[in-house]
């Protein structure tokens, strides 16, 4: 009886692991054909007979993004929303442009591991491990260097040069999601109660109000 329970537990654990990433394709492709009337975990498949080359094509990643904003960076994403042919393949990518000393603020990808390659410039990267250690792991990268950010962990990038910098990121999900920490905490809709944030960050409520006003 004990051995059967052990086997059952192993099967459950295996199923949980198998379901922890995007579904694997069971056919050559499943080009996304969004259907707003029904919600599914992913996208509906377009009729294979109607699939064209453009369903697997995206143009424009060579173009520099507009970095004239408060953080000095711009992320151009290529997920299933921009490239329907990615549906069920479990991958996506992004171009990240940085103004001098611009940052890609601390954020997480709830559904993907990210691997980043520097194309131009010098970029400082880092991520923070989970509780209770909250260890910061950082590295300075140069052109051609590669760094990986584990799934779900808070991470960031910063241009540490006086010129523009560019990086390409690949992600292990067709729709990795992005949660920018400052936007989520201080720019939620509606606002998180100030007394909650004041207690969480150990600051005065007026400080919270000041920060929320910027988002």
Automatic annotation (TrEMBL):
<dbReference type="InterPro" id="IPR001929">
    <property type="entry name" value="Germin"/>
</dbReference>
<keyword id="KW-0464">Manganese</keyword>
<keyword id="KW-0732">Signal</keyword>
<dbReference type="InterPro" id="IPR014710">
    <property type="entry name" value="RmlC-like_jellyroll"/>
</dbReference>
<dbReference type="GO" id="GO:0030145">
    <property type="term" value="F:manganese ion binding"/>
</dbReference>
<dbReference type="GO" id="GO:0048046">
    <property type="term" value="C:apoplast"/>
</dbReference>
<feature type="domain" description="Cupin type-1">
    <location>
        <begin position="68"/>
        <end position="209"/>
    </location>
</feature>
<feature type="binding site">
    <location>
        <position position="104"/>
    </location>
    <ligand>
        <name>oxalate</name>
    </ligand>
</feature>
<keyword id="KW-0052">Apoplast</keyword>
<comment type="similarity">
    <text>Belongs to the germin family.</text>
</comment>
<feature type="binding site">
    <location>
        <position position="114"/>
    </location>
    <ligand>
        <name>oxalate</name>
    </ligand>
</feature>
<feature type="disulfide bond">
    <location>
        <begin position="30"/>
        <end position="45"/>
    </location>
</feature>
<feature type="signal peptide">
    <location>
        <begin position="1"/>
        <end position="20"/>
    </location>
</feature>
<feature type="binding site">
    <location>
        <position position="155"/>
    </location>
    <ligand>
        <name>Mn(2+)</name>
    </ligand>
</feature>
<keyword id="KW-0479">Metal-binding</keyword>
<protein>
    <recommendedName>
        <fullName>Germin-like protein</fullName>
    </recommendedName>
</protein>
<dbReference type="InterPro" id="IPR011051">
    <property type="entry name" value="RmlC_Cupin_sf"/>
</dbReference>
<dbReference type="Pfam" id="PF00190">
    <property type="entry name" value="Cupin_1"/>
</dbReference>
<feature type="binding site">
    <location>
        <position position="109"/>
    </location>
    <ligand>
        <name>oxalate</name>
    </ligand>
</feature>
<keyword id="KW-0964">Secreted</keyword>
<dbReference type="InterPro" id="IPR019780">
    <property type="entry name" value="Germin_Mn-BS"/>
</dbReference>
<feature type="binding site">
    <location>
        <position position="114"/>
    </location>
    <ligand>
        <name>Mn(2+)</name>
    </ligand>
</feature>
<dbReference type="InterPro" id="IPR006045">
    <property type="entry name" value="Cupin_1"/>
</dbReference>
<feature type="binding site">
    <location>
        <position position="109"/>
    </location>
    <ligand>
        <name>Mn(2+)</name>
    </ligand>
</feature>
<feature type="binding site">
    <location>
        <position position="107"/>
    </location>
    <ligand>
        <name>Mn(2+)</name>
    </ligand>
</feature>
<keyword id="KW-1015">Disulfide bond</keyword>
């Amino acid at each position: 009886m004990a051995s059967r329970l052990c086997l059952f537990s192993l099967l459950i654990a295996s199923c949980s692991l198998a379901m922890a990433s995007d579904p694997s394709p069971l056919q050559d492709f499943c080009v996304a054909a969004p259907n707003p009337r029904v919600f599914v975990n992913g996208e509906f498949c377009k009729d294979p007979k109607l699939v064209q080359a453009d369903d697997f094509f995206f143009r424009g990643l060579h173009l520099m993004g507009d970095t004239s904003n408060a953080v000095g960076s711009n992320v151009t994403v290529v997920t299933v929303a921009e490239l329907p042919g990615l549906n069920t393949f479990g991958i996506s990518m992004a171009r990240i442009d940085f103004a001098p000393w611009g940052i890609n603020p601390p954020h997480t990808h709830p559904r993907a591991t990210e691997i980043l390659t520097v194309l131009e410039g010098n970029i400082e990267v880092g991520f923070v491990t989970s509780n209770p250690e909250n260890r910061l792991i950082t590295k300075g990268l140069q052109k051609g260097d590669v760094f990986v950010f584990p799934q779900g962990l808070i991470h960031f990038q910063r241009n540490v040069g006086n010129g523009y910098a560019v990086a390409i990121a690949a992600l292990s999900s067709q729709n990795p999601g992005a949660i920018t920490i400052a936007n989520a905490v201080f720019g939620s809709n509606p606002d998180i109660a100030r007394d909650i944030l004041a207690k969480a960050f150990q600051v005065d409520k007026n400080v919270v109000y000041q920060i929320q006003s910027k988002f």
